[in-house]
Amino acid sequence: MKDKWRLPLILLLAFLLTACGAAPEKESGDAVVVGFSQLGAESSWRMANTASIEQAAAQYGFGLMMDNANQKQEKQIAAIRSFIAYRVDVIVFSPIVETGWDNVLREARQAGVPVILVDRMIETADDSLYTAYIGADFYAEGRRAGEYLIRKADALQAEHLNIVEVSGTIDSTPMRERQRGFMDVIQDDPRFTVIASVSGDFLRSKGEEVITGLLEQYGAEGFDVIYSHNDSMTLGILDVLDRQGIQPGTDMLLISVDGEKEAVSALKQGRINCIVQCTPYLGGSVMSLVQALKDGRPVPKVSHPVESAYTDFDDLSDPAMEGF
Ligand code: GYE
Q: Do residues 146 and 182 make contact, with C-beta atoms less than 8 angstroms apart?
């Protein structure tokens, strides 16, 4: 059989057999195969992240078995089990929430399959259940959001600002840490009160729903700042503010996270005040770790990409700042 067909055929066969419940084991000596469990497709961030991992795997010449869990932890666990049965070389996964992974990760360890966590972290008493983690420093992101707010309040000479927080998926790392970092920066400053915190699950439609409810409850005069944990929800929030004749960026301050194209252009128009950057381009770093594991080189336990924030204090004409 021609070499170039061998890997695709093995992957196809593996997929078909896994779908029937009986995965064949990968033969040693084959090209490196990475099993990747993506948590969903809820935002532009997630789409760009999936594409980054696919492209990097191709660049490294690795086979990629990918499963999209559609926001279901059970689906992620099932995907990880099928990767173990197939004996992929490395499992990469982005955990939707932090807890509930110990059992399946113990199974991976018993089978001798290393696990790389990408994007989100897990909460476990046993750190040896994963080999490495690559993802943003979400706590630092939350702090950047808080630091921006302090700077803005100073510039506006605001006496008091009421804040509503539209958070990401409950118990996910970005939700927990973006909240904790933000609160650590603002909570001792008497100018700020967080009057409500509601989850919008990182979804545009839920961002719309949540802000509609908060406006009904408190009225447009009831709060001054919206801190939204991602751009997709922020875009949904902008739609609602527009419909209700509330001027985002001036009547209501908006602080968001990610840096997707549509949000960056809203920032440039003055409709969002600050976007804390969170890069989805993690594929290259993940695959370089896979390569290191394959070569038997040591890998760092935790690595974070370098990130910053785009705000209405910055020169927004920089063409590099166009988003994903
Ligand atoms: O901010 C959001 C996505 O985990 C960093 O998940 C990721 C977050 C990202 O849905 O847009």
A: yes
Predicted confidence band at 317 (pLDDT cuts at 50, 70, 90)? confident
Asked if 85 contacts 18 with a C-beta cutoff of 8 angstroms, the reply is yes
Residue nearest atom 8 of ligand 1, based on CA coordinates: 174
Site residues for ligand 1, CB cut-off 6 Å: 42-43, 45-46, 119-120, 136, 174, 202, 230, 232, 257-258, 278
pTM for the whole structure: 0.92
Most ligand 1 atoms within 8 A of CB, residue of 39, 46, 76, 237 to mutate: 46
138-278 is a CATH 3.40.50.720 domain? no
For domain 19-136+280-305, the question of CATH label 3.40.50.2300 is answered with yes
Q: What is the pLDDT of residues 61-106, one digit of tens each?
A: 999 999 999 999 999 999 999 999 999 999 999 999 999 999 999 9
